[in-house]
Design a protein that fits this description.
The chain is mostly helical. The protein has one domain (2-134). It is built from 5 helices and no strands. The longest helix is centred in the middle third of the chain and has 25 residues, at 57-81.
Length: 140
Amino acid sequence: MDDLDTWYKGVFIVGEVAKYLGYGKKGGVCRKVGGLSGAIALGFAVYGNHAFTMQDKKGKQLKKIYEKGYKMHLVHSVALAYSDTCNKPVTGYLFMIGIFLYSGSCYAYGLKGDSRFEYTTNAGVAFLIFGWLSMLFGEK
């Protein structure tokens, strides 16, 4: 449980630093979707902490995959919420697609144990990376 508390504190600190630096003053769609996405990520985190009762090696491995999904979901929900401030609409959409593909496949793979879902994570990571890079390059 300490690991989960550390993640929550880390996400809170990222949000506070962003507010201090003046980010997030706009109230655009990405901010609202980011807030909703963060709430959903917390719901998945709570569910995941109670859903995995298997104590064998495979059960522990599936739980780790599921945990990666909600941790990335939570961190990128914060990034999504503040993506409106970079004045590049594509950034928010890249984060939304990346969260859906990466975290969604981690949730599905962790809950179902079906390895077909693991290939979608690579595409999700690519969208998340492009989301971060879009903040650096190009104009509106």
